[in-house]
Every structure is written in structure tokens, then in C-alpha cells.
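example protein:
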Amino acid sequence: MDWIKINPADNVAVALKPLAKGSEVLGVTLIEDIPAGHKVALTKIGIGQNIIKYGSPIGHALSDIQAGSWVHTHNVKTNLSGLLEYSYNPHPCSMPRDREAAFEGYVREDGKVGIRNEIWIVNTVGCVNGTAKTLERLGNEMYGDRVDGIHCFVHPYGCSQLGDDLKNTQHLLASMVHHPNAGGVLVLSLGCENNNLGVFKEMLGEYDPDRVKFLITQDVEDEVEAGLQLLDELTRHAQQAKRTTVSADRLIIGLKCGGSDGLSGITANPLLGNISDLLSRHGGTTLLTEVPEMFGAETLLMNRCKDEETFKKTVALINNFKEYFIRHGQEVYENPSPGNKAGGITTLEDKSLGCTQKGGAGEVRGVLSYCEPVKEKGLNLVQGPGNDLCAITALMASGAQMVLFTTGRGTPVGAPIPTVKVATNTPLAERKRNWIDFNAGVLADGADMQETTETFFRQLLEIASGKKTKSEEHDFREIAIFKDGVTL
């Protein structure tokens, strides 16, 4: 098939490959070329009339659009504006637990389950980034064969921060210390920073002293020598852990899309939605973030909330993020990124209706603030921006052991946790084999969705059991901490 009409109510179709002027789509002759991933009008759409895709409006026509015309940013404008009031119209959609599966994971002493047994070097402040990188390099040379690797995650924060920014940094770093993918953690401090160890330990709470070690670099003569001694102790402790068979109900998977194209909402994102529903049927958990990319499709999530309290939390999640935009004098419904537009995404509604498909059809069980640990099994919404690095870091901070990351444009980015890249189209998967872990483009090529879902789920169980992702093979691991305030 060269094109797809996603919903019977749609007045546009999406080109699955470049369509030439003069070719036909549903009996409509194209009057101009249509790029792959972009939309073509199936009927005349008058000025002011809605463009319908996924069965919902994605904006309105800025001028009369003739049948067979290219429908994109030059002739479409968003319908969205300002803050909205919402009402709860529940649609029952709970998922039965009727499937069983298992993977080989690490059961930690606190009951959490990790899918990797790594040593993480967590900096309280950016001033010790260089020391952390030196310890990472030397630690892997000396002790790396004892564990799945020793990794540091540099960042510029932890000092000269005020209010919520400092708290965000502390919460994020504390979540890393407690993350079960780390069999041991070295907390590395300078000593004079705002986020000094005395302050940070108050935020950290209880910890296992055999698993978590601390080093204030200003207090020792040779911080590298002292750090390596602690890494020796941590790796000896961590190597005692062994993989054991664990039910798939212990899996927590983050859902993310980046660099969308016109096929994102047709192939990769619906595939992740099916994975989310399937994991729920196994008793597991999924986390959905990118709050700005829910704008325009938020009511679909709100009406799937398990109860009115969860609905109210979802409303607050959406409106608080809109107020964040307004507070900074920014347009709430800013158009998608240049890469999104080039790939065929026209308005925020267009992007959001495709993005939210990652959450499947299941009930929204919980709503989490930034870095809040997940408690409810099933689908949860997480406070976080659309920015790729910030979003995958937020998913990790709420407890995800891995992230599924769909992309129509391609990206090498990786989180501290395994980051599974899912291509929306086959040309990308074939061109960037060093980035892509799974090709959802086969769905546009005619593959069956259910069979593809089952195949992908088996691959995810293999990754949970130790199979490396492409980002892990290349050692692409980064964090980005959400910031909204003054830096001194």
C-alpha cells in the first residue's frame, strides 16, 4: 500500500511513500507531489473547516484546500489556545491480567528488580564531572569485568541553584542512587556545594551502606586513589548478585517518542501502545511522559482515568504545564519541531494524537510528579517535558528499568537505563542499523500488528535478561535534569 486512511472519518490520507502528481488515492487524483509521511486532501476542505486525522480534528484550513492537494503547515492552523476546563467522562478500559511471562533479573535487598548490574557514579555537583569521568575510565579498566559496567553521568547542576531547581536536582540524583539497575553507587561530592552530602543525605533517606559509598573530594589528598578504592569495594559487593527468574509483572517500561514523522502515529507509537496493553495483561507497568505532547489529545487520557481523583491529577498535570509555558511568555501550542514538520507532522494536535497512542487503550492508573516513584501497576502518566534527554531521565527517575524510544528521524541518544530505539519506517531502520533496535516500519510494509507486538515483546524480555541495546553497545548514556528557575 502506498497510502493509508487511518480512520473512516478522516478527510486526509497519509502517504506511505512519495506520491507523484497525477497518481490516485481513493479515486482522488493528486494535483501536486506528496512527500512520504505527509497528508493529502481526500475531498475539498473549505477555509475554516477542520482537518480530520485519527478521527479527530488536528487543526483547520487557512484557505480552501482542493481534493488531491498537499495538506501541511502552509494551509493548516492549530485549533488549540489557552487553558481549558475539563469534565470527567469515564470510559471503562481496565485490562485483565491473563498472561504470564518471565525474564532473568536482579532482585535487590529492598525488593526492587534490576535488569542490569552496573556501578553508577552519581555526582552531587557538576564541579566533579572530570573526576567522575576519570574514575569511570580507570574503574572499568581495573574492575569492570566484575559487573555489567561502571558508568558516570555528568551534569552542570548541584550548586548555585535555588528553590525547586535544587530540589529537582536532588530528587533526580536520589532516584539514581536508589535505582535497581545499579548494583552499587558511588556518590561523588566536591564538599562546598549547595547540594553537599549532608543536605543530599537528608533527601536520600535510607540506603544500604554496602551498596552506596560516599566520597567528598575536598577531604582527601588523592580523590582518584580514594575513589578507586571505593569502586573496588562496590564491585566486589555487586558481583555477588546473580540473575534469577522473575515474573514480567516486575517490569517497568518507559514510553518515549522523539523526532516524529508522519508514520509515528501509524506504526511505532501504536506498537508501543500494544506493548503497554500487553505488559498490563502480564501485570506490569508502563510510564508515559512528554506532557506538552499530550496537548490536544489529553481528553483521551483523562477519560481513561481509573477514578475522578486520578482524572483531577491529570487535569492538574496538563494545566500546570500550560501555566509553565505562559509564565515564561511562551506560546502554549507552539508548532512541532522542524524535524517533525519535515516528517509530515503539521500541528500539535497532529503530533499529540500520534504520541498518546504509546499509552495504548488501558486505564490510567496513576499520575506522578517529577521523580516521584511509581506505585500503581499499569499505565502511569509522569510529569516531564517533550525534550528527549529530560523525558528519558524523568522516566528512569520514576522507576523505569528500560525506555522504548520511537523515532522517525533517528537519534543515538541513550538514558542511564537500556534505551530501545524503534524506527517508524523501514528506510531509517536500514540506514541507521547502528542506532535502531527494532523496525516498526514493517507495519507500513504489511506486517500483522499482533504478530509484530508478540515478536517485539519477546525481544524486550531478552533485553531485560541482559541482551544489550544499540545505545548500550556504543556506551551512549546521558541525563538531563529539568530546570525552571534562577541560577546564581
About this structure: Residues 247-473 form one domain. The longest strand covers residues 182-189. The chain has three domains: 3-77, 118-240, 247-473.
